């Protein structure tokens, strides 16, 4: 039951990444964050909220570098809070490539060999590497 309540909390505060044109002439906005009720939230609010739950799902546009940058920033922020307890699943890596991924993460193979053996998306080098 505890997990269900945490997932409900997550859905209640789930934020959507939306790329919007800048409205300020001095510093254009690259994104805005919204909570589950459509209210604008700042980055620190988002991190504080998602750091409390067990599972976070992030939807994205696969070819949007802004969302990929935000995901990296979120991972970095959550790692600073949770350290090595943080677990990450990435759908761009297929399950039958798990052994190659594990070898790379444990330093058993080089980055070049990793890229040769994995089935990587075309934007891997610019958005994911």
Essential attributes:
129 residues; mainly alpha; 2 domains; three-stranded antiparallel beta sheet; 3 strands
Protein structure class: mainly alpha
Main sheet record: 3 strands, antiparallel
**Percent in strands:** 5-15%
- Average pLDDT taken over every residue: 82
Task: Indicate the overall shape.
Answer: globular
Helix content: 40-55%
Q: Which segments are poorly predicted (pLDDT under 50) over 5 or more consecutive residues?
A: 7-24
DSSP strand count? 3
| CA-CA gap between termini | 38 Å
Number of continuous helical runs:
6
Give the number of domains.
Answer: 2
Radius of gyration, rounded?
17 Å
N-to-C order of helices and strands? HEEEHHHHH
Biggest sheet strand order reads: 1-2-3
Short recap of the structure:
The chain contains six helices and three strands, in the order αβββααααα.
Structural write-up:
- With 129 residues, the protein is mainly α.
- It folds into two domains: 87 residues, no CATH class; 41 residues, no CATH class.
- The protein has six helices and three strands, in the order αβββααααα.
- Helix 4 runs antiparallel to helix 5.
- The longest helix is centred in the middle third of the chain and has 18 residues.
- The radius of gyration is 17 Å and the shape is globular.
- 4% of the residues are buried.
């Amino acid at each position: 039951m505890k997990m269900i309540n945490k997932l409900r909390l997550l859905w209640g505060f789930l934020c959507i990444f939306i790329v919007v044109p800048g409205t300020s002439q001095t510093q254009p906005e690259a994104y805005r964050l919204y909570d589950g009720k459509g209210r604008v939230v700042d980055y620190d609010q988002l991190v504080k909220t998602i750091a409390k739950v067990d599972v976070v799902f992030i939807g994205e546009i696969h070819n949007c570098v802004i969302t990929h940058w935000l995901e990296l920033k979120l991972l970095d922020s959550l790692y600073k809070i949770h350290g090595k307890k943080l677990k990450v699943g990435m759908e761009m890596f297929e399950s039958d490539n798990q052994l190659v991924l594990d070898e790379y993460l444990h330093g058993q193979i080089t980055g070049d060999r990793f890229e040769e053996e994995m089935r990587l998306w075309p934007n891997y080098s610019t958005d994911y590497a």
